[in-house]
Amino acid sequence: MPTGRKTLASAALSAVLALGAGAGFAGGWGEPHLDVLPRSAEDAGRVAAVIRPATDFSAPERFETHPGGAATDFGATGAQAFSAPSANLPEAREMDFQLGRGFFEKLWVAAPASTTSSDGLGPLFNARACLSCHIGNGRGHPPAGPEDTGVSMVLHVSIPKSASDLDAETLAYLASAPEPTYGRQVQDRALAGLPIEGRVQVTYTPVPVTLGDGTVVELRQPHYGIADPGYGPLHPQAQLSPRVAPPMIGLGLLEAIPEADLLARADPEDADGDGISGRPNRVWSKEFGQWMLGRFGHKAGSPTVQAQSMLAMAGDMGLSTPLYPAHAGDCTDAQAACTGAPDGGSPAQAGLEAGPQVMELITFYSRNLAVPARRGLDDPDVLRGKEMFHAAGCTACHTPKHVTHRLADRPAQSFQLIWPYTDLLLHDMGEGLADGRPEWQATGREWRTAPLWGIGLTETVGGQATFLHDGRARSLLEAILWHGGEAEAARQAVSRMPAKDRNALIKFLESL
Fold first, then answer.
1. How confident is the model at residue 150, as a pLDDT?
2. pLDDT at 328 over 80
3. What CA–CA distance (Å, rounded) separates 129 from 174?
4. Whether residue 342 has a cis bond before it, omega within 30° of 0
5. Bridge-partner residues for 124, per DSSP?
6. Largest CA distance in the chain
7. Given the DSSP bridges, would you call strands 426-428 and 446-448 parallel, antiparallel or unpaired?
């Protein structure tokens, strides 16, 4: 990956940037992170039959009880519902899962410390542990008020690439242009002696919406800012995008969906005229040194579980990792006290704070958090709600079923029929949800289709029921009513439903 600040205006670079518009993705970008076994003609026929869309809603579909395939967990309940390992995890790997859990839950401390395996936090950071944001391995939430630190939500920040003084070559390999002083996200915590970067301010404006039957639902439109910025004013063109931590379940299964299957669903020019123009996000992989399909993050900005994990370790906790070796995390050259602070790099961690072995264990744990079993899926109201979900056109983006690759080295994710209810593609969700902040090929109005598995357990696991990328929605109905753009027709269909059908739809979502 080029890193210099030189001017480069070559035809080769222009071709690379042009591919971001969607050209050339049909052939695929490669899956070097997977040891894939070929799918036979017999397998292909079985897959085509099993992922065929549902047409009969009088009873559950075969295997619908197991949203995560054989990896589905049937034992964990309550606040631990997202904390079980894949049910088909080989016994020989169970210790790796538990070691990964230990690193995921550990509280990191400032360097230097006697616990050299746990120091290196910050100097600026948002959380001391992964679990602080991914509460119970589930969804985060926005700050509930001025006294709430909002640790499970971060505020991403950037400036338009056209406003950056970085050269074109460097910008081509960045998801967005960092804000010159504050970097990629605003850290609301700091080690002793350093000012924090600021605190997230969020206020809400009520937005009443009247449904077809006269029911009034009050949405809340958020407004974001940074209180008491510790390092001076932000760039005048700063772009702020709040992000609550997403659930951790089923990530290894999402990573194992064949790229070709996802790209086959893309329709960037809406060639079929259905109003749905799903686009893949094409992102640069520092891990493999090539362009890959983005799958993870609210805008599909990371290609693999490991890349997403290392990005979070660096940005959220200020820890150096193999992909992000800067000990000061997201600190910038404008923050001299931060970049000059002691670090926790050690020979035992290959000179890093969270070295290769630590990250391999965290990644393994993250890949193998099991999806919980469905609940009440044969309830007549749930079945009616499923029919309404299909009738409203929700499955145009929230694709119910996929079959994963046959994998030589990941038996827990190999050739599984899964029910994540996502296509992992980008969709224009309208002005109401727009953050105005591009990320790779994602525009300021586009978001990755969020997986829906486990969504009915949000409050059970995390203590709060808030939804969408910034947690503005306090119920599943509110989340639906924020949908616009490509999802406008589906939103209107739900708005016009009789209360009985609308309630059945919500009950279906709560069963996932």
1. 63
2. yes
3. 26
4. no
5. 190
6. 66
7. antiparallel
Two tokens, residue 494: 């739900």
Neighbours of 443 (CB within 10 A): 16
Helical ranges in 279-436 per DSSP H: 305-317, 336-339, 356-367, 380-391
Two tokens, residue 481: 């009513």
Strands (E) located in 80-238: 124-125, 153-158, 185-186, 189-190, 199-210, 216-227
Which of these, 279, 261, 289, lies nearest to 19 by C-alpha position? Answer: 279
**Amino acid present at 43:** D
* The token pair that represents 59 in the structure block: 């009873």
> Which pTM was predicted?
0.94
pLDDT digits (tens, 9 = 90+) for 469-485: 999 999 999 999 999 99
Cis peptide before 325 (omega within 30 of 0): no
Hey, which residues does 201 pair with through a beta bridge? 225
Rg (CA), the chain: 22
CA distances to 142, 227, 236, 438 from 147, in Å: 12, 13, 28, 31
- Cis? peptide before 2, omega within 30° of 0: no
Q: Within 10 A of 326 (CB to CB), how many other CB atoms are there?
A: 15
Name the β-bridge partners of 153. 244
Whether residue 280 has pLDDT greater than 70: yes
**How would you class 210 by CB atoms within 10 Å of its CB: exposed for 0-12, middle for 13-18, buried for 19 or more?**
exposed
Token code pair at residue 507: 């009950």
Residues sharing a CB contact under 8 Å with residue 96, sequence separation 6 or more, in sequence order: 361, 364, 365
Contact 312, 319 (CB under 8 A): no
Domain residues of the chain, as ranges?
29-91+251-283+369-510, 93-246+285-352
Q: Is the peptide bond before 195 cis (omega within 30 degrees of 0)?
A: no
Of 143, 107, 133, the closest CA to residue 366 belongs to 133
Answer positive or negative: Cα dihedral of 260, 452, 218, 141: negative
What is the pLDDT at residue 378? 97
Residue 365, C-beta contacts closer than 8 angstroms, at least 6 positions apart: 96, 97, 99, 100, 101, 103, 104
How many of the other CB atoms lie within 10 Å of CB of 221? 12
Tell me: the pLDDT tens digits for 350-402?
999 999 999 999 999 999 999 999 999 999 999 999 999 999 999 999 999 99
Q: Which residues contact 379 (CB under 8 A, 6 or more apart)?
A: 507, 511
Nearest one of 140, 139, 121 to 129, comparing CA atoms: 121
Residue range 57-64: mean pLDDT, rounded: 97
What pLDDT, on a 0 to 100 scale, did the predictor assign at position 253? Answer: 98
Cα distance between residue 49 and residue 340, in whole Å:
59
Helical (H) or strand (E) element with 479: helix 476-481
Q: Which tokens sit at 448?
A: 């990755």
pLDDT at 14 over 90: no
In whole angstroms, give the CA distance from residue 28 to residue 38: 16
Residue 26's pLDDT is 52
Q: How confident is the model at residue 25 (pLDDT cuts 50, 70, 90)?
A: low
Provide the residue type at 95 as one letter: M
